[in-house]
Amino acid sequence: MAGRYGGGQGRRHGGGGGRGGRRPEPEPIRGVRDDARLSSELLAMDGGSYGRYKSLKGDWDFGDFTLTVQHAQSDPFAPPSRVRVLVHDAGIPESAWADPVRRRATADYLGRRARRLLKGSLLKIDTGGQEVIERSSCQVTEGGIDLRIGVDLPGRGRRIDGRAAERELCGTVPDLVDGLDWEEIDAAEAVAFADSVADTVALRSELEGRGLVAFVADGAVLPRRSGVSDQPMAGGAVPFDSPESLRVSVDLPHRGTVTGMGVPEGITLIVGGGFHGKSTLLHALERGVYDHIPGDGRELVVTRADAVKIRAEEGRRVERTDVSPFVRGLPTGADTGDFRTENASGSTSQAANICEAVEIGSRTLLVDEDSTATNLMIRDERMQALVHGDREPLVPFIDLVRPLRRDHGVSTVLVMGGSGDYFDVADHVVMLDAYHPHDVTDRARELARERSDADFARPRARVVDPSSVDDTTARGRGRVKRRDMDVLVFGEHDIDVRSVEQFVDPGQITGAGLALRALVRGGHLDGARTLSEALDSLERRLAEDGVTVLGAEFGGDYALPRRYEIAAVLNRLRALRVAELR
User: 367: helix, coil or strand?
Assistant: First the structure.
């Protein structure tokens, strides 16, 4: 597209009005609402009371795109205003949007380009980090683009800076639209970006048919730049090189044949000395449920989509969860098949986390001993001799991990550095030595001992009382917002999400809050369906209509979470009530 807009019209001063009480919001500007009118109105507002920005709300016709002012902030220090830019035809070929995977990838690519084009402006677009996740900020329509952008409307104190606002809305926005036109971008780069994501999705789809829970490509770069940066290590990283006994080859639609380590179904241990890369590998597998941008180093590190990271979480609330496989015969006589507590111990919280994951369909558990409750993981012979079974209500995970696999098809990948007891139950053992993996299964079996297993009955399904999932405040307004990566504010409730480790994007936390709202308002969580059935229903709606169905009335940015993180947030809502167990 050629640039469509040329300068504003004459300047008029807008007055600040009188003093006194709170003024009513200005009426939206009426009559012709096109780019020229918007320019003249902004210039006329220069120096006026900041509240006059609210008169801009609504649609403005720029010809080949529509600019919608969705929300205008009340003063310069309030949260940013929100605008929507709907580009009717950006020349995007059908091959880039007809397939849902390529549509998501193309939207992600264009969103990242938009961020670069907006650098230095007052307009900000949410594009996330290393993962390619469906998000509200950039959606690709049939050849067009739908952008949701934040903007700090400029002011001098509490007076409007109309000239700066006119430059941003009537200059920067049209330039942005021009810069996103398919003829203006590097189409080959955009196609390669989508090809990379399509290969990742294709690779993940191969796992179950090959009896694998994960795949780590030869040459993958797993270490990250630092503890606060998810970008790949800039130099010195050891490329992954799979053990020959676990190496598999997969043919992908664009990259062709790739090789790497296949992590088989069953129980796989990752062992090794400290600082040799055990947790780095598991962390990559945690993130392998998501697709990554080209150049991340983990594009071909994939894990089954149902994989859930398990940890202990002392202090969390548990609401009517069936933890009876792990906790039996409490001295209090409490029914562990219908267990609730306001302040779980490390062991009971970990048991609840496992049972809740299995309840909603996870068949792959990821566990790092460093973040677990030791007394739920193992109990050695001397402790068993001192504390007899009839006095110990906890059944350790080591006695249940094989029944989970045998009876329910649940595989487990465990990082273990301090206990060899799990050799007794492992199907495969991978040792990391200076970041190089070695298959040491045969040696581990030589050290293993026979042991008996406990039973693992499938946890009972829960039916949630939808009235307990309420996002309204005391004033009757809906409220969903996040505080960093730690807390989701849902109505009057603060939900601690620090231990939900597979949130990889702040927008997913907001998205999970909106999903809770959608579960109730959309009738998915209706008091009759089980939690798993309600999540199935919501997923079908999202597959049909996309992520924007979560935020039709929401003014901020958000990204699509998985069902497992949505359930995890719901389970940590302290107001949650379960009406029935089935």
Answer: strand
Give the Å distances, CA to CA, from 541 to 135, 511, 519: 16, 15, 10
- 490 neighbors 497 (Cβ within 8 angstroms): no
Nearest in space to 419 (alpha carbons), one of 269, 529, 275, 561? 269
Q: Give the three-state DSSP class for 278.
A: helix
- How does DSSP assign 487-514, residue by residue? EEEETTEEEE-TT-TT--SHHHHHHHHH
CA dist., res. 118 & res. 116, Å (int): 5
pLDDT at 137 over 50: yes
Assess contact for 467 and 525: CB atoms under 8 A: no
Q: Where residue 305 falls among pLDDT bands split at 50, 70, 90?
A: very high
Ramachandran bin of 345, using left for φ above 0, alpha for ψ from -120 to 50, beta for the remaining angles: beta
Euclidean distance between CA atoms 149 and 170, whole angstroms: 14
For 6, 190, 426, 558, 568, the CA distances from 325, given in Å and listed in that order, are: 71, 50, 20, 37, 20
Asked if the model's pLDDT at residue 2 lies above 60, the reply is no
Structure tokens at 333: 């006589």
Query: Quick one: pLDDT at residue 381?
Result: 65
- What CA–CA distance (Å, rounded) separates 576 from 566? 13
Measured torsion, CA atoms of residues 524, 530, 532, 533, in degrees rounded to the nearest 10: -50
Q: Which whole-number Å values give the CA distances from 447 to 268, 415, 423, in the listed order? A: 16, 18, 7
Kindly report the length of the chain: 582
More confident residue, 392 or 34: 34
Distances (CA, A) of 246 to 401, 424, 430: 22, 20, 10
State the burial class of residue 321 (Cβ atoms within 10 Å of its Cβ: 0-12, 13-18, 19+). Answer: buried
At residue 572's C-alpha, the angle toward residues 507 and 536, to 5°, is 70
Does the pLDDT value for residue 486 go beyond 70?
Answer: yes
Cα-based torsion angle of the residue sequence 283, 285, 289, 295 in order, rounded to the nearest 10 degrees: 80
List the one residue out of 59, 87, 78, 61 whose CA is nearest residue 153.
78
Residues 6+ apart with CB under 8 A from 540: none
10 Å Cβ neighbour count for 306?
A: 20
Closest by alpha carbon to 282, among 268, 300, 296?
Answer: 268
Phi/psi class of residue 277: alpha, beta or left (left: φ > 0; alpha: ψ in -120 to 50)? left
Distance CA 162, CA 41 (A): 8
**How far apart are alpha carbons 429 and 263 in whole angstroms?**
10
- Residue 187 parent element (H or E): helix 187-206
Whole-model pTM: value is 0.92
CA atoms within 13 A on the CB side of 69: 26
What is the predicted pLDDT for the residue at 388?
Answer: 61
On whether the CB atoms of residues 97 and 89 are closer than 8 A, the answer is: no
Q: Which two tokens stand for residue 327?
A: 């906790």
- The per-residue pLDDT for range 57-116, each reduced to its tens digit, is 999 999 999 999 999 998 999 999 999 999 999 999 999 999 999 999 999 999 999 999
